[in-house]
Design a protein that fits this description.
InterPro entries: Papain-like_cys_pep_sf, Transglutaminase-like
Pfam family, one: Transglut_core
Organism: Cyanothece sp. (strain PCC 7425 / ATCC 29141)
CATH architecture of the largest domain: Roll
Oligomer: single chain
Protein name: Transglutaminase domain protein
CATH class of the largest domain: Alpha Beta
Radius of gyration: 22 Å
Shape: globular
Number of strands: 19
């Protein structure tokens, strides 16, 4: 096998080609409004109907980097904070930081501009962050501020086998100091977390098999549910239910205890409806996943809890070392958003409401082969 790819749409059912161009057929359902003449009280009904589409599959294989890119889209994403404190607060020298989209193998940042207020750009490691400064925030003061970005995003799928990483080099010391420690309330000292870390991998020593066994173990132990807050991994393991952020916390803790460097990535997914061109769309909720580091190969993505996972398996691996086009990468290993008043117990949700919008502008052309 030379490479694998992620399809841009769900439920591919057939593959064909015309010359060198591949085409996929997709089958699914879509909602529609039907007028029922026999129901005078409520003549309009919301029903489902079959939908079949045929679209080209665009593939760019980078053998040296061990990945393949597939179809992508030009997006406009806006992140806006509406400052509206719940309490009568007056804050001096407030600094508000919001991560900006990252430049990656599958994501190109074409443009970023401020919304509402100007910002200073700073780097946290290799991550870009927008810094908004408020010399004095007075009670009942309202502001709008944030950023708007234009992005090119594609699906990516890495292809590595356990044999490829059997003799990989040791983890660099600076990675161990940063990505093997409990620096985000991971409860790695708690007995239930340490026991889970041991049970998850058994006697496995190969890094790819270890991380996959940890992922499957977490999927076995937890059921997904939206939660109003993020609890620590010991609480989540004991409860057996978690949100995507809590899945990530457990995955981080168990992986780091087993010597696998990993970090959180987020923060949003564009609603995956490429047919809705030019229409602003709002995600239902935020989303985080993680990356794990393989020495000699770099950071590889892993979804925290794919939407279609069936409890107790079998668990698909298409989002293991792969990301679909609609994930927007930012805040790798750092907080997506924070203020200099966080340590004083002032929560972001007590200060502002966020507004997130995506607009799919166009489909990206195929990547020209390098000569």
């Amino acid at each position: 096998m030379q490479f694998t790819v992620l399809t841009p749409l769900d439920s591919p059912v057939a593959l064909t080609h015309s010359g060198d161009q591949l085409y996929l057929a997709y089958s699914g359902e879509e909602p529609y409004v039907r007028e029922n003449p026999n129901n005078e009280d409520e003549p309009l009904e919301l029903l489902m109907r079959d939908r079949i589409s045929i679209a080209p599959l665009l593939v760019h294989h980078d053998a040296a980097a061990h990945y393949a890119l597939s179809n992508g889209y030009l997006l406009e994403m806006s992140y806006l904070e509406e400052l509206s404190p719940l309490d009568q607060l007056e804050l001096e020298n407030l600094e508000w930081r919001i991560a900006l989209p990252a430049q990656t193998d599958r994501q190109r940042v074409c443009q970023v501009e401020p919304l509402g207020l100007p910002f200073e750009e700073e780097l946290q490691g290799d991550q870009r962050v927008a810094l908004f400064k408020f010399p004095r925030l007075q009670a009942e003061e309202s502001r709008l501020f944030g950023w708007k970005a234009r992005l090119e995003v594609r699906g990516i799928k890495y292809l590595l086998t356990p044999a490829d990483v059997e003799d990989c080099s040791p983890l660099p010391a600076e990675f161990a100091q940063k990505y093997l420690v409990d620096n985000d309330e991971l409860a790695m000292h708690q007995p239930i977390v340490q026991a889970a870390a041991r049970e998850a991998i058994g006697t496995e020593t190969n890094i790819l098999r270890k991380i996959l066994k940890i992922r499957n173990y977490v999927y076995d132990q937890l059921s997904y549910a939206l939660r109003p807050r993020i609890d620590t991994p010991d609480v989540v393991l004991d409860r057996g239910v978690g949100s995507c952020g809590e899945y990530v916390g457990v995955l981080l803790a168990l992986s780091r205890l087993n010597g696998i460097a990993c970090r959180t990535v987020g923060r949003y997914k564009c609603p995956p409806y490429p047919e809705r061109r030019g229409v602003p769309q709002q995600p239902d909720y935020n989303h985080v996943w993680l990356e794990f580091y393989v020495p000699g190969y770099g950071w590889l993505p892993m979804e925290s809890n794919p939407d279609d996972v069936v409890e107790r398996g079998p668990y698909p691996t298409r989002f293991f070392m792969g990301l679909p086009w609609y994930h927007v990468e930012m805040a790798k290993g750092i907080r997506f958003e924070t203020t200099n008043y966080r340590d004083q117990g002032i929560r972001l949700g007590d200060l502002a409401l966020n507004h997130v919008r995506f607009t799919i502008l166009d489909e990206l052309p195929a990547i020209a082969p390098q000569i």
